[in-house]
Structure formats: structure tokens, C-alpha cells
Amino acid sequence: MIEDPLSTRDRSTPLRVLSRSDLADVPITPAAVVRAVEEAYLAFAAGDSDNPRKLSVANPDGWSVAYAMLGRDGRRRVVAMKTSYKFDPGHDRSTKRYYTTITLYDDATGAPIAMMDCARVGALRTPAVSALLVRETVRRGAESVLLVGTGTQGRNALPQLLAANPQLRKLMVYGTHPEGLEAVHRVLAEHHPQALLETVADPRAAAATADVVLATAGPGTEVALESTDLAPGSVAVLVGYGLAPSTLVDADRVIATSAEQMALTGTDMVGPDGTLRAVDAELPQILNRRAVARRSDDERIFVYNSGLVLTDIAVAHVLAERAIAEGRGTEVPLWD
Prior knowledge:
With 336 residues, the chain is α/β, with parallel strands linked by helices. It has helices at 5-11, 20-24, 30-45, 119-137, 152-164, 178-191, 203-207, 246-249, 259-265, 283-287, 309-325; strands spanning 15-18, 55-58, 64-73, 78-87, 97-106, 112-117, 144-148, 170-174, 197-199, 212-215, 235-238, 253-256, 281-282, 301-304, 330-332. It is 33% helix and 23% strand. It has an 8-stranded parallel β-sheet.
């Protein structure tokens, strides 16, 4: 029997596995993350990349949910598959388990690049998307931002935001966990040592003065800012929790990274009539100037940040290249 030479080559190709610790301190600047994410959106808007709808399965008792996402970055020539699994029977931190991975393949050579933990990718990608959304929707002369929440997304939010919006000078944060607040201050100081960040005690009073509100809190938060709490001309970005449905219902304009994703995952923001407000424009089309984000300085804009796997691919590829160049990870002869 003659063996297929392609099959032989596949079995001799090792797979580089990059663990969470391998990736934890790979150097990457907030500006580099924002740039990678923007390039991914522009490629998608130009039709160079593919981002099919995600698949999901859930335990009927609500104990777990799993997702599978496939994407092709046509400019980077990378194909990737991302998976995530959350086990949360008690709906608290003591019982929650969350695992997410991404596997990258070189679509120019056919070789696998890496299989890697995706925790840091998501921690960097999402705030970079928020930074771009704010850049495209913020009114002229805007200077102030309120961050609500100090979890993983909150801790990475401000460095990315300032990378794309350096004019924001008045920074405020609200949180209820002392260690989270300390982490937000520390991470900001690492990237912007001259920036001043105020911890506020009243999120509603702070929101009334903020040009930008970033809601990154977890599902247990007691904060739910209403549309009446927001300043005229402000932008409210929903990443996690912290905004009430009225901020969407009463907005002058609604922007999303993906209208389809918002329809799937934004159902907790439906209005009194049980319907979800329609999206006026999506980020990829705004970035390539086929759609308009803000029409006037006095509009209040609601922004929904939901992920596209193409942005995960872009950030993961940058991290993988840098980690492999430093000799990190473990080569596994998976196909031997």
C-alpha cells in the first residue's frame, strides 16, 4: 500500500501548545492590540475575511453553555477555530469553571501555528473593540469617562481606551471590590503613568458628568444606569452589565459590532414592548466609512460590544508569533 505523502507530512508536523502561563507576560502594547483589532474589522468589511455565525449548546438545566466559532482572516492568511465552555451550576465564583481555546492554522502553507489558551486574548480584544467604538462615536471635545466594573474587562479597559482616545483626560471608576479597584489603578499606571484616575462612590452622579460610560461589570452588579442618568451627547458602551434597557430604548442612535450578535445575546436589553431596538450602524462599516456613527454632538449613543472571532484571531496571531519567537510553549507531535 502506497502512503499518501500529504498524510505523512501532516503526521510529522508538531503542534505548538501555548498555555496561559506561556502567554501571560508576552509583551504587547495597547496600541498594538487596537491596531490588530481594527485591521481585522477592516478586512471583514472589505470582504477579505469570513466570520460565520457561532454554534452553541447548553445544558437544559442551565448548568453549562458551550460555543464554537470558526473564522478566516484573509489578510493575515490565518484560519482559526475558537471554543469556549462555561460550567456554572451555582452561579457564583466558587463553582464557576470557564475554559476557552483557539487553534490557528497558516492558510498560506497549510501548517498549524498554535493551539493556545484564549483567556488573555479575550481580555485584550474586548477592550480594544470598545476603544474603537468610542473613537468612532464620541462627540467633539469629549474629555471624561466613567468605567463601571473592575473585573477582567474593567482592568484592561482604560489603557486600550486611551490608546485610541488620548484626549480623554478625566478618568473615573466605580467598583465594589477593593482588589479590583487596585488592579484597575495598577494596570492603568503601567501603561499611562501620568494618567489620573478617580475612584467614585456614586456611579449615577459620575455618569451625569461623563462623556463616555463603559459598563463592564459582572452579572451580580447592583448598578443599572438609566437613560436619565446619562449626560447629553454621551456614549454608553455595554460590554457586560451596568446599563438598564432604557439606555438602549431611549438612545438617539444605536451602534453595534454586529447586529446579528446583538440580536442573539442582547435580549436582556429589550424594551417595555418586548422587542429589541434595531441597530443603526455596525462597526466594520463605520471603520471603512460606509456608515455614519454620530450625526450631531448632542446625540446620546448606545453601543453594544459583542465579539467577532476575527478579532480573537488577530490578537491571538500576534501573541502566538511573539511567543513562538521567544521559544515559548510545547511542541506536541499530535499527528504522529
